[in-house]
Amino acid sequence: MKLICIFLLCLWSFSAVTSAESSSHVDASHRSLIIGGHNAQPGRYPYFATFDHFGGGILIAPDIILTAGHCNPPLDQPVKVRINHDKFQSTDFAKEPEDEETFSIVKIVQHPDFYTISWDETVNDYNIFKISGFSKETPVKLNRDATLALDGQIVAVIGMGSMKPDPATFVETSATTLQEVDLTVLSHDQCEEAFDPARPDQAYKGRIFEDRMICTSGGPHNEKDACAFDSGSPLLLTSDNSNQSEDLVVGLVSWGEECADPFFPAVNARVSFAMKWIDETVCALSDADPSLLTEFGCAHETLSLTVVVAKLAPWNLFQQQSPGRMSFSAVPGMLLAIIVATVVHRRRNTGRRVTIEELPLQAADADGVRPSYDTLQ
What are the TM regions of this chain, as residue ranges (predicted)? Predict the structure, then answer.
């Protein structure tokens, strides 16, 4: 069994607070190698993020990274998030390429329904990291269509884990630049049929949830694959012209049996299944301008006001406004007004609505004191 984020290999953390959702750290056997791949074209995947070579992820908003749920660092060491790391040509992480951006992780939110079936198998395998600043790179698009990727479709997988184990020593060779490999999407039935007579207890039957998992194969003998240090790296539908603005993330590297196992395909977390949670979490965590978060439905603060005025008594009505407060005052003169106001104050971070349906105003008293009503707190 292979671990995608083995605890002993993932002694990385962040100088920050983690949310309650990320309280469970998982010793999961997941994917850490790009096997049978090749060097990615420099600059082709600027939204790719790596965490000190112990996992991968993607930039989905200026200060938000999406990765696998089992990549959930402990809190004993800081970890650097490196974006646009594909030009890295050295295993010395003290050296930072000119175009690379580095951040720390300030918060982690794990999918609330994340769980493990066994020590090497996870379900609802999604994590969101908030980072310590805003990346200048353009975030990648996420797939919302539950029918993608199609059976038989080719997806690109990228990562900076180990490339291959030495056949004599089984020591893995670390990648010094971003690796890329093309894999084929298998149908749900094909994946569930995976079986090795020598390992009957590892059969996939009943373990693959079609709505939240995508299986991939690297050829007739599954000679190409992703493995442990590639956990959380993306499965991508790419355009023929290699236009990164058209890249679409359909999955995240999650779990499987041995690397490039000839019997068992790789299992990946399907992004479309988690989009409602991703939308809500990004809107709650991100400090980016809401105009940069429209994909996630993060609303601007809005205010609507309807006023109905009736000539009922000899008083005038006038309105005073100041930031965060509206004052309506009546003074002797011509009209008494009845205000019917609906105030919708959508908070970008929570989506909470505050509605005030009816606010009748009173006339000034004999001393001319003007009553006021706060409609926004």
Answer: 326-344
- Please state, as a whole number, how many other Cβ atoms lie within 10 Å of the Cβ of residue 111: 24
> Is residue 1 in a domain?
no
Phi, psi of 225 (to 5 degrees): -170, 170
Domain match, 170 and 291 both: yes
Over the stretch 250-293, which tens digit does the pLDDT of each residue have?
A: 999 999 876 667 788 999 999 999 999 999 999 999 999 999 99
Reply yes or no: is the peptide bond before residue 149 cis, omega within 30 of 0: yes
Task: Residue 161: give the domain boundaries.
Answer: 7-296
Separation CA 67–CA 57 (nearest Å): 4
Decide if 2 is inside a domain.
no
Domain's final residue, options 296, 313, 338:
296
Cβ neighbors of 263 (< 8 A, separation 6 or more) are 194, 195, 196, 199, 222, 257
- CA–CA gap between residue 154 and residue 214 (Å, rounded): 12
d(CA 223, CA 266): 11
| DSSP, res 293 | -
Residues 136, 104 share a domain: yes
With CA atoms as reference, report the closest residue to 209 among 258, 156, 269.
Answer: 269
Q: Which pTM was predicted?
A: 0.70
**Whole-angstrom Cα distance, residue 221 to residue 218?**
7
